[in-house]
Amino acid sequence: MKNVILSIALIGALGLIGCKNEVKKEVENTSEEVSKELAVTDLSFGVRGNCSMCKKTIEKAANGVDGVVEASWDVNKKKIDVSFDGSKTTEMAIHNAIAASGYDTEKVDADSNAYSDLPECCQYDHAMAMNQSGETQSDDHDHHDH
User: Fold this and answer.
1) Is 95 inside any structural domain?
2) Whether residue 91 is found in the same domain as residue 68
3) What are the residues whose beta carbons fall under 8 Å from the beta carbon of 139, sequence distance 6 or more?
4) pLDDT level of residue 37 (50, 70, 90 thresholds)
5) Other beta carbons less than 10 A from residue 105's beta carbon
6) Residue that wins the pLDDT comparison between 99 and 136
7) C-beta of residue 58 within 8 angstroms of C-beta of residue 73
8) Cα 110 from Cα 108, distance rounded (Å)
9) Distance (Å, rounded) from C-alpha 56 to C-alpha 109?
10) Which residues, in sequence order, are CB contacts of 85 under 8 Å at separation 6+?
């Protein structure tokens, strides 16, 4: 008699475990979807360049990386703001993509062949300051003249 009761108890317990596992899987899937939404990282770093043509090329290179949500390069600050999904790409992948398009970043020098292929107006000074505050040198000269 005791053996029969134990068997029923074990079967009941196994049934419950099966249900719990199914529920747990649904919860895991939901948390993965939530974590994907929260995985977006905002990042800013310096990128050398000269003009609006540079802006298009730099942004196209960054946006071409799988996982990049948005990229915007500021011609005055020589800085790019990027939002990306950290589960799909990395900061270095974005630096490498921009460098491969011919532009120096704070961490990766431009591909020399890609730089040579840039239009002449886009061939920037490799010593150019990056990630600036946005105040141009002409503003500083105006202050000294007063």
Assistant:
1) yes
2) yes
3) none
4) low
5) 24
6) 99
7) yes
8) 6
9) 19
10) 36, 39, 40, 41, 67, 68, 69
Instruction: Tell me, yes or no, whether 79 and 124 share the same domain.
Output: yes
Residues 33 and 45 in one domain: no
- Distance set, CA 11 to CA 14, 17, 86 (Å): 5, 10, 44
Between 43 and 37, the higher pLDDT residue: 43
CA distance 24 to 34: 15
CATH number of the domain that residue 85 is part of: 3.30.70.100
Domain that holds residue 18: 1-38
Asked whether residue 100 falls in the same domain as residue 66, the answer is: yes
**What value does the mean pLDDT take over residues 37-42?**
78
Residues 31, 65 within the same domain: no
- Its pTM surpasses 0.70: no
State the Cα torsion 133-99-120-142 to the nearest 10°. Answer: 10
CA 139 to chain centre: 32
pLDDT on residue 132: 85
Q: In the chain, what are the helix, strand and coil shares in percent, each to the nearest 5?
A: 55, 15, 30
